[in-house]
Amino acid sequence: MAYTRRIVDDELDGLLAELPAVAIEGPRGVGKTATAEQRARTTFSLDDPAQRAMLEADPRLVLSSAAPVLIDEWQRVPAVWDAVRRAVDRGSDPARFILTGSASPVSAPSHSGAGRIVTLRMRPMTLAERTGAAAPVSFADLLSGRRAPVSGTTAVTLETYAREIVGSGFPGIRGFGDRGRRALLDGYIRRIIDVDFAEQDRAVRRPAVLERWLAAYAAATATTASFETIRDAATAGQAEKPAKTTTIPYRDVLERLWIVEPLPAWLPSRNQFSRLAHAPKHHLADPALAARLLGLDQAMLLAGHGPDRVLPGFGPFLGQLFESLVTLCVRVFAQGREARVHHLRQHGGRREIDLIVERPDHRILAIEVKLGATVDDDDVKNLLWLRGLLGDECLDAVVVTTGPHAYRRADGIAVIPAALLGA
């Protein structure tokens, strides 16, 4: 199968042109190995027991192999990391080593690799990467602060977005029909519970409890629901709740597996923002995992079904998953521009902005996400409030929609269909 170039490829090529060692990190099945293999001359696959045993016996074998050397699933032999780090210390040419990992190692290397091995995060595919269609609105232009005109039309409908949400951004899952894709997602979730936790030295004694906790976390997608609320939802109807010492490791392991990726709150050091709340928004690596954990397909999402039986009171679930899909895309685009993504929420939820993209110079791009085709004054009031407070520090303000047209309103707010937003 022909390789489909990803946005992260440009980042990887840029880093390898200068640096001797880059580690690509991200959840299992996201495409790390396929991306790295495009550049490798020698590959060590450490999920192969024979190759793993060979490097356990002598990690220095990677140093004498033809470069670029790909060390796939390096976390299975942490000593390899140390061998690469020492080689970099002694001096290595650019593009000498590429490491990939689907989890943080249980036994950490003796040295973090800071300053020697640069890490690069890889996420599931963006909408633009999935469809290959033209995306005429450039995220880079929005982040530049030029506030240029935006335009474009798409035939992508709400039905298409719902299909993309359940269709998954994992390359190896996307190409199957509905039933095959559901089976693969179920298998992915079961592997997390039955295998990945054990490999992280956290064998699950009660798999059903972890699966219910995952479903409750999925129900909290794109919300700031407390972990106590999630825990209670996972054990609804049970008199005895699991202790925090049981559920906190769930979060820790899932973050090490890059399965959950909370969106941190934006905390600027300005007096006028003193009432901002600090809780993160909850997101799984791929919105398809959230839909599958709750047993929801495209038709059910479009019919308004959601997880009220699990975690009531957070509005249309399709809207939450659409926000999570847009968040995934924005995170990929922002990483390529060395920007960070947050959310803004005042205590009590008086004002909220879904995404705050912060450049290294601390100037920001503000983004609201709306499950709808039209944008009215109420939809942009928080963007206008923030722009008024920040002035030129607010580079641009955007509403991402499910509508057909990209344009700027008279107040300067850009309205952009998600399908038209590219890197």
Mean pLDDT: 91
- SSE class: alpha/beta
Order of helices and strands: HEHEHEHEEHEHEHHHHHHHHHEEEHEEEE
Number of individual domains: 2
Question: Terminal Cα separation, in Å?
Answer: 25 Å
Query: Beta-strand level of the residues, as a percent range?
Result: 5-15%
In total, the number of strands is: 14
Helix segment tally: 16
Annotate the secondary structure layout.
Layout lengths: L6 H10 L4 E5 L6 H6 L4 E4 L3 H9 L11 E4 L5 H13 L6 E5 L16 E4 L5 H5 L5 E2 H6 L7 E2 L4 H10 L3 H4 L3 H22 L7 H13 L7 H8 L9 H13 L30 H7 L4 H5 L14 H20 L3 E6 L6 E7 L5 E6 L7 H14 L3 E8 L3 E4 L5 E4 L3 E2 L1
Parallel strand pairs: 1-4, 1-5, 2-3, 3-4, 6-14, 10-11, 11-13
Antiparallel strand pairs: 7-12, 8-9, 9-10, 12-13
